[in-house]
Amino acid sequence: GSQKDRVLSEEEWLKKWEMGNIGFHKERGHPLLQKYLDVLLNGRTGLRIFFPLCGKAVEMKWLADMGHSIVGVEISEQALREFFAEHGLSYCEEPVPGISGAKKLQSTSGNISLYCCSIYDLSSSIIGKFDGVWDRGALVAVNPCDRQRYGSLMLTLMEKNSSYLLVTVAYDPSKHKG
Q: Which residues participate in S-adenosyl-L-methionine binding (predicted)?
């Protein structure tokens, strides 16, 4: 079928994590973030940086170690727990008021807060606004029919002088499936 009609359910994403079918996860920081870090930071320090559909992105720890405050969202609790375990970070867990079944896993240092829920359950009244966004594949992962909704949500989460780094792909679907 056509890629624009693709729909993956939350259950299918959870199954990918459960089965270790996470070829999208990068063990090392993404080279484009390293290359364009100055664009994201724009000379600023102590930023609030958002990671939509964060998985267990190693860049979250890297930026937190630079003194930034990191907020991520991911449907897979397994991915979030693996992030903390793989980086040897202790964390506390609490429910998210107003979102049934959602959890916030926060590093005990307080500079990394990861929400386990659907991104569409979040709003700026819950997670605040951000100085920067690192979208390394969220827009690509979002079902095409939800991309407008995703874009609108992201706009509501950005401060006026935000920087948004987006990694996406363009390809000829007749030459590459998926």
A: 13-24, 53, 74, 118-119, 136
User: What's the order of all strands across the beta sheet hosting 69-74?
Assistant: 91-95, 103-107, 112-116, 69-74, 48-51, 130-135, 158-166
The reported pTM is 0.87
Task: Compute the distance between CA of residue 39 and CA of residue 65 in angstroms, rounded to an integer.
Answer: 18
Average pLDDT, the chain: 88
74 is in an annotated binding site: yes
Q: Specify whether domain 47-167 bears CATH 3.40.50.150.
A: yes
**Known binder of ligand: residue 16?**
yes
Q: Is 15 annotated as a binding residue?
A: yes
Q: What digits encode the pLDDT tens for the residues 6-62?
A: 666 777 776 776 777 666 657 778 888 999 999 999 999 999 999 999 999 999 999
Q: Is 130 annotated as a binding residue?
A: no
Contact 52, 133 (CB under 8 A): yes
